Amino acid sequence: MRILLVEDNADLAGPLLALLQRERYEVEWADNLSQAQALVDKLEPDLIALDVMLPEGEDTGFRLARQLRRDGFGGAILFLTARDTVEDRVLGLDLGGDDYLVKPFSLEELLARIRALLRRGSTLRQNVLERGPLRIEFASRKVCWNQQPVSLSDKEFVLLERLALHPERVFGVDELISKVFPNTKSGHRILRVYVHRLREKLGDSVIATQPGGYTLGV
User: Which residue numbers delimit the DNA-binding region (predicted)?
Assistant: First the structure.
């Protein structure tokens, strides 16, 4: 699952990033509005943890949430903010927020709320995919092939997840590299390596090679 943290306080963002990464979420961090907007398009997050007060203004987080909903963003929005009035909470939820957590907060409570939002289906994703011998539980990252559990690395799962969420779509090579391996310098080679690994672990048929790219093969 992909999370975008929008928080301008680096002293808070650092520990939150480390915490979410330990929980095996794919996380990106933005500390201002323009970065957040760019990362929404790049990451396609399942959940945005959003501060209200950003460098562009005290209500920037509210304005961003409203714009995202107008643009059709279907992921969960969790406000993380020091603004604790009832009016602020109501406004945040009315503008498209799914939950509202006031700073300072417990890290355990934050994780619990994130898990609840992802379970609730705020995203348009399905929780479980079953196609032929393949079964994927997206929230828990459990993968089975022919009813046998298979252990995947983070990047292996992210690649399989992207193909599985759109099983009829052919993904171009460059698109997969930009989404799954955005910082690679290995070019197309790294994608071929991970496709080979998934085929070794799950069976040759799990990924089909198509002209110009790949698609789920089952």
Answer: 126-218
Both 96 and 134 in a single domain? Answer: no
pLDDT single digits (tens) 32-80: 988 998 888 788 888 999 999 898 888 899 999 988 887 767 789 999 9
Same domain, 91 and 178: no
Q: What is the dihedral of CA 147, 150, 154, 155, to 10 degrees?
A: -90
Do residues 32 and 54 touch, judged by C-beta distance below 8 A? yes
In angstroms, the first-to-last Cα distance of the chain is 22
**Which of 116, 65, 114, 68 shows the shortest CA–CA distance to 92?**
65
10 and 88 inside one domain:
yes
CA 21, 27, 31, 36: dihedral to nearest 10 degrees?
A: -170
- Residue numbers of the domain that contains 89: 2-120
Co-location of 109 and 172 in the same domain: no
